[in-house]
TrEMBL record:
It is found in: Secreted. InterPro entries: Heme_transport/Cell_adhesion (IPR051298), Hemopexin (IPR016358), Hemopexin-like_dom (IPR000585), Hemopexin-like_dom_sf (IPR036375), Hemopexin-like_repeat (IPR018487). GO terms for biological process: intracellular iron ion homeostasis. Residues 1-18 form the signal peptide. Glycans are attached at residue 191. One of its GO terms (molecular function) is metal ion binding. Its main location: secreted. This is Hemopexin. Pfam families: Hemopexin. Belongs to the hemopexin family. It comes from Synaphobranchus kaupii. The keyword Oxidoreductase does not apply. GO terms for cellular component: extracellular space.
Amino acid sequence: MGLRSLSCLCLALALSQGAPPHNGPMEDDHTPSPHHEGFQDRCEGIEFDAITPDEKGITFFFKGDRLWKGFHGLSEPLNSSFHEMVDHHHPGHVDAAFRMHHEGRPEEHDHIFFFKDDKVFSYYNYTLEEGFPKDIQELFPGVPTYLDAAVECPKGECVTDSVLFFKGDEIYHFDIKTKALKRKHWAHLPNCTAAYRWLERYYCFHEHQFTKFHPVTGSVVGTYPKDARKYFMKCPKFDHGSNDTERERCSHAHLDAITVDDLGKAYAFRGRFYMRLDTQRDGWHAFPIATLWKEVTSGLDSVFSYEGKLYIIKGDQVYIYKTGATYTLIEGYPKTLKEELGIDGPVDAAFVCGADSTVHVIQGRNMRDIDLLATPRTVVKESRLPFPKIDSALCGSDGVRVFVGSEYFHYETPMLLAYSRIRPEPHKTSLDMLGCDH
Ligand SMILES: *[C@@H]1O[C@H](CO)[C@@H](O)[C@H](O)[C@H]1NC(C)=O
Ligand SMILES: *[C@@H]1O[C@H](CO)[C@@H](O)[C@H](O)[C@H]1NC(C)=O
Ligand SMILES: *[C@@H]1O[C@H](CO)[C@@H](O)[C@H](O)[C@H]1NC(C)=O
Ligand SMILES: *[C@@H]1O[C@H](CO)[C@@H](O)[C@H](O)[C@H]1NC(C)=O
């Protein structure tokens, strides 16, 4: 499968929420400001009331009448963004919050729902929707008042589009369409004061820690709890000492490789980092390649996807991974390029278009087409490209993009790439593909 609509990647841009978690050079923006009453430094270790992303993928952290936007930076008063949550007699607070995932109802999809006592508030674009607040019972019958936490759970991750509500040690699965409510008791999970879905993963926050859990079974795999300051905010004493991936993402250096896997996950690779291109709803982030593909770690030459598999080419080796929730190296790999594709390295770029079985391999000025169904593999066609060196290439439903330095060029088909005399106008990769503002 190709990239369904690459153009949608290019829309939701300029949404950068500052640095991604667990990396980056230390900045002074955590320094407590002594003039602020009610100031709280989240690097001291805070038990949050609620955590939710907004419709642009910026994560909000709530505590009392303070609000943090994004993974770094100072807090601001809750009432400067959501003044209806604060009344004249009480300092504001939020019991729970989540962002609605409901594709079938655009009037609710991507709205942020806040819960306070027995009321629910729906915001979009920082504006309280008409008719709100409402009683929780009216919208979410059976869900208790004075909640502790809430989190969206879209179909595919839960059985149906759902919301998980938390109160004490009880969890309520609420089906958005049928309004069916199921109560669960996950004794091993700590009582969550905030719950958060990020990049398809689910986190229960308690004290200044968090525990990752499965949204259907509640199972916890791995060593938890972990300290939230190490992963979800930039705190000097908890810095991993890694590089600034934000700077990494927006640098104008060339991309080593770019692909969309058969589940629709889009990746760009540079140095030892990968960037997801299809998750701008959760913000833009770069991660070490080794976290998903530990056998390769850095300096990839090209990556392409075919028939549920991800092919990574590095030097004269080909690594083939089975695509799934995680990537599993197929037994017997890596193999040499000669063995797998019948060619010698190095390879600059490689791509497959849709369900076609042809992999187009770019080496210098040459594009070599190899049929992945034929054995032994042989070059069935060779063409001369109008570029001396291409860094990476991607084929989607709307054509081929070839990446050269900090720019890319768009062709409607691989044929046109091979034979067109006119070079299309260049696009800036950082601006149009990676969500940067320059
Ligand atoms: C927010 O609340 C503070 C005090 O709690 C008040 O001084 C300030 O004027 C309020 N701001 C808005 C925009 O309502
Ligand atoms: C969001 O609100 C601002 C003002 O608060 C307004 O200018 C803008 O048009 C709104 N955007 C949408 C998409 O409704
Ligand atoms: C969790 O919630 C239950 C029910 O409200 C309560 O009895 C229990 O003490 C809580 N556990 C902790 C560790 O707070
Ligand atoms: C940061 O990046 C540089 C250059 O890419 C690399 O040499 C260095 O080892 C990296 N540092 C860490 C802590 O990963």
